Amino acid sequence: MKDADKFFKKAGGGKSNICIHRSMEGPFTKVRMDLIHDSRLSAVAIGIYMYIVSFEGMDSFDEEFIAKGSPKDSIRSIREGLRELVKHGYLDEERVPVMG
Question: Per-residue pLDDT averaged across 44-58, rounded?
Answer without folding.
Answer: 89
